Amino acid sequence: MAAPSRPPATSRALPAFVPATAAAEPASGLNVAVLGSTGSIGTSTLEVLAGSAGRFRPHLLAAHSSVAAILEQAHQCRPAWVVVTDPAAAATIGTGALPVGTRLAVGPEALDELVADPAIDRVVSAIVGAAGLRSTLAALEAGKTVALANKETLVMAGPLVMRLAAARGATLLPVDSEHSAIHQALRSGTSDEVVRIILTASGGPFRTRSRESLQTVTREEALRHPTWSMGPKITIDSATMMNKALELIEARWLFGCPAEKLAVVVHPQSVVHSLVEFIDGSVMAQMGPPDMKLPIQYALSYPARHDGPARRLDFTQGLRLDFEPPDPVRFPALRLGHEAAARGGSCGAVLNAANEEAVRGFLAGEIRFTDIADMCSRVLDEHAYQADPSLDDIRRLDVWARQEVVKWARV
Ligand code: NAD
Ligand code: MG
């Protein structure tokens, strides 16, 4: 971690690992590009924009193949652009289907080009999985302020992404609720005063299940998250706790925090979104209901705060907060996260790709729930480690890791 000098008491200076201040909001409101607008984060983002009293307006919406949903969104919020990255899906859009004033672009290349449009002030990166990397890189390349939900970007290519952001004067602000909480808590001190960053985990639907019984869980059971409503991929990741593994790696690069200072605690209520422990023993927590609208809005409005549509905590109803240590035996994915955060290099890209393919296999009924972490562990162990992989290396390893999972799934 970089060791910044202590700011004077009156200064508003922030620790080095809190991303730089985003550009001030112009009086007329900011144009926002929402990548993955039809997903769970995408639809919550549109609610935040609609409730922002004109501070933010949707300029570009992008989705892969959910044409009916994106057309409905386009009629509701009249963006300048709609991008559909799947050409076959885009071909089903008839003439006159879009509102007057909204233009259609097709394919991932068109999206890469359009996110660089100088008219765009903020980019919300909420495409799911490795597919979200290229448009996030394109936005950073263009020096944009990116509200990052797509954690896979940092898991796969953290050092490269952070170097690119610094070189292009771009700003990355976390949307992931844990990282948003950490970002907020870090504003209480300097980086040399931080002794531990503690990510909270709900524990998912199987928090109290035995290792044996986990072998037979069904797709439906795994998709039933107790506290958060999210897309299917991240919901399975929460059930295996691979989501927390990916978030450890995300925190490692986003905050420039050494892996040994990162920890996980299970907190079933999902009210404390993460914690930062300082050298004097003070622990700063950020709290709120499990509602992604708050971290989305914070990433858009930072460094300011304003009123918005996120739910509020109601202390008149009584509030219970429990914390317990995670169980690495029942949730072996956690160890993989700590290992990949510590080793760095190509580990994140390989772990992410193996997990994406294994989750796809589990959702398709091809492998068991417990196979997901086992397969990821094997692929991670057997890959040809690279300390500082290029983007091409990362793409090659991503393909290799997926193939390995498919191969083992057939055995
Ligand atoms: P989701 O499955 O609900 O939505 C995914 C979106 O990505 C859709 O709009 C879809 O059209 C688009 N998409 C899918 N494949 C694509 C492709 N190949 N090219 C372009 N677009 C594509 O997912 P989600 O739950 O909203 O998660 C989105 C991202 O945010 C993930 O990286 C996830 O880890 C992260 N995240 C989500 C939550 C949450 O509460 N849902 C919380 C923290 C982080
Ligand atoms: Mg999270």
Q: Secondary structure elements and their pairing?
A:
Blueprint: E1 30-35, H1 40-50, E2 56-63, H2 67-77, E3 81-84, H3 87-90, E4 103-106, H4 108-114, E5 122-125, H5 133-141, E6 145-148, H6 152-168, E7 171-174, H7 177-185, E8 194-201, H8 211-214, H9 219-222, H10 232-240, H11 242-254, E9 262-266, E10 272-278, E11 283-287, H12 293-301, H13 333-343, H14 347-363, H15 369-382, H16 391-410
Parallel strand pairs: 1-2, 1-5, 2-3, 3-4, 5-6, 6-7, 8-9
Antiparallel strand pairs: 8-10, 10-11
The structure holds nicotinamide-adenine-dinucleotide (NAD) and magnesium ion (MG).
Structural commentary:
It is built from 16 helices and eleven strands. The chain is globular, with a radius of gyration of 21 Å. Helix 14 (347-363) runs antiparallel to helix 15. Strand 10 (272-278) and strand 11 form a beta hairpin. Residues 1-16 have low confidence and may be disordered. It has helices at 40-50, 67-77, 87-90, 108-114, 133-141, 152-168, 177-185, 211-214, 219-222, 232-240, 242-254, 293-301, 333-343, 347-363, 369-382, 391-410; strands spanning 30-35, 56-63, 81-84, 103-106, 122-125, 145-148, 171-174, 194-201, 262-266, 272-278, 283-287. It folds into two domains: 30-168, NAD(P)-binding Rossmann-like Domain (Rossmann fold); 188-290 and 311-409, Rna Polymerase Sigma Factor, Chain: A. It is α/β, with parallel strands linked by helices. Helix content is 41%, strand content 14%. The strands form two sheets. It has a seven-stranded parallel beta sheet with strand order 4-3-2-1-5-6-7, with helices on both faces. Strands 9-8-10-11 form a four-stranded mixed beta sheet, with helices on one face. The structure holds nicotinamide-adenine-dinucleotide and magnesium ion.
